[in-house]
Amino acid sequence: MPDLHRDRAFPRHGRPVYLDYAATTPVDPRVARRMIPYLTELYGNAASRSHAYGWAAEEAVELAREQVCALINADPREIAWTSGATESNNLAIKGAARFHRGRGNHLVTLATEHKAVLDTMRELEREGFAVTVLPVLASGLVDPDVFAAALTPGTVLASVMLVNNETGVIQDIAALGALCRARGVLLHVDAAQAAGKVPIDLAELPVDLMSLSAHKLYGPKGIGALYVRRRPRVRIECQMHGGGHERGLRSGTLPTHQIVGMGEAFWLARESMASDNARIRALRERLWAGLSRMEAVALNGDAERRAPHYLNASFSYVEGESLLMGIKDVAVSSGSACTSASLEPSYVLRAMGRSDELAHSSVRFSLGRFTTAEEIDFTIARIAQVVARLRDMSPLWDMARAGVDLSTIQWAAH
Amino acid sequence: MAYGDKVMDHYENPRNVGAFDADAEGVGTGMVGAPACGDVMRLQIRVNSAGVIEDAKFKTYGCGSAIASSSLVTEWVRGRTLDEALAIKNTQIAEELALPPVKIHCSILAEDAIKAAVADFRARHAAADPA
Question: Do B116 and A412 touch (CB under 8 A)?
């Protein structure tokens, strides 16, 4: 068994410390090794039923399907391969809304969902669906009473992510699902960030559709899956036509090597989730202990209901992009407007009631399987250094230290 | 996004970070931007009796391009008269720093900071400013 940590020792010259696992993950070497034969040797098309090349590919695909099911306790007939969680979200939401249009045209979701869900919902609005986007509490959690009140007789589908990509907050899907069941509303859950990080048991959870991604879980980019419940049977309209693959749910030649990779990644996650999580939680606590020693540092997101891998913090009086620029040797992301193409600060943090200023000053650290204690300590030292330097350059820090209440200032914004 | 060399230089080695006493003789202070926008610049100038800016200091809350724009401005205003300082255009700042289109607004804010500092100086020293 290779020493997974030895090769990821802190920081090799020229390579930043990677603390952006929520953005994507390195493919686990064991996953990559399993994939490669399917590129150059076992390259058959899984739909070729007449020869050994096809049979070998089909066998590999079906094994991978079982591996994915093992992590989430689903039946293989409930899994359809897609190009990733974005496609799965599109398929689930558009597919369910369009199929069930006869019995209603109302959709519900949360303000903190991923753009893949929000933009899909907006597109359906253009087609004549009514969409309710619910607010969340300061913790990032949705109030179950608010959620229940939004479900009307005309509501077809609700979409709620299990683990939030910016804060790691874990929604109470069991409770929300029960509310949906009671009202005949389908529940779609984006589990791209959740699979392999928190236990998922679809025999227990009242979830009808679930989106899965490989590249958040040490698998390759460009492959995901959509879970579609059989009992009770969930019907959706196909969005990608042409050959009827995946029981007519999603046409297109199956990328065997990608699927093998996703299967192996999910299988490894099932084996190591408990031990990975314990290690990662301890490292995350170490990171927070170091960062919270600084003044004016705030945590974003519920302290308890949060997956162990995430730490979203705001460093007051310091703008996020300038902070990231100063720690080029640590790879993280920020909720600052300057780091987004739209120049809008993080809508997730704003939905949680965080001021624009705190959103601009936010940094998301996300840990993973290969994170080491040395990397954490290095990060704490670099952050402390850069925050101190930037605060020395910040007029807001000057004013705060002089006791000025920044909320009372009339800013001359242009 | 990869950062331009000049922006990185000003970020790593900012010129004239600091503050003057805003009430001191010959000092003008301009504060522009807003925390909600992610950009706040405070530019201070010290003007001598001949109406020439002899020193300037800045502090900025903002991205690397905002820091670079305000740092550059403190270099450029030194040795200029107030009217010469007012002639500095954001386009010149953006060109000098090779700012990408999405960061042009940082140079606009820096130009505004100069105007605010000069206006503050003139308001405080109405009698002393040889226009």
Answer: yes
Cα distances from A322 to residues A30, A199, A237, A394, in angstroms, run: 37, 37, 46, 11
Q: Which chain A residues contact residue B32 at CB under 8 A? A: 412-414
pLDDT for A78 equals: 98
Q: Does B40 touch chain A (CB under 8 A)?
A: yes
Sign of CA dihedral A260, A261, A267, A270: negative
In this predicted structure, what is the pLDDT of residue A5?
45
Enter the ipTM. 0.91
Distance CA A172, CA A45 (A): 41
Distance from CA of A135 to the nearest CA of B (A): 21
B33 contacts A337 by C-beta, under 8 angstroms: no
Q: What is the DSSP string of A332-366?
A: -EE--GGGSTT-PPPHHHHHTT--HHHHHTEEEEE
Q: E-strand spans in chain B?
A: 27-34, 39-47, 53-61
Instruction: Please answer yes or no on whether A356 and B36 come within 8 Å at the CB atom.
Output: yes
* Interchain proximity A414–B32, CB inside 8 Å: yes
Looking at residue A237, its amino acid is: E
Residue A212: φ, ψ to 5°: -130, 150
Amino acid found at A376: I
Using the Cβ of A319 and the Cβ atoms of chain B, whether some distance falls under 8 Å is answered with yes
The tens digit of pLDDT for each residue in A256-295 reads 999 999 999 999 999 999 999 999 999 999 999 999 999 9
At A350-393, the pLDDT tens digits run: 999 998 888 888 999 999 999 999 999 999 999 999 999 999 99
Listed residue (A332, A329, A361) closest to A345, CA to CA: A361
Asked if residues B61 and B42 have their Cβ atoms less than 8 Å apart, the reply is no
Query: Alpha carbon A236 to chain centroid distance?
Result: 23
User: How many beta-carbon pairs under 8 angstroms link A with B?
Assistant: 90
A390, closest residue in chain B (CA to CA) = B61
**Per residue in A83-137, pLDDT tens?**
999 999 999 999 999 999 999 999 999 999 999 999 999 999 999 999 999 999 9
B20 touches chain A (CB under 8 A): no
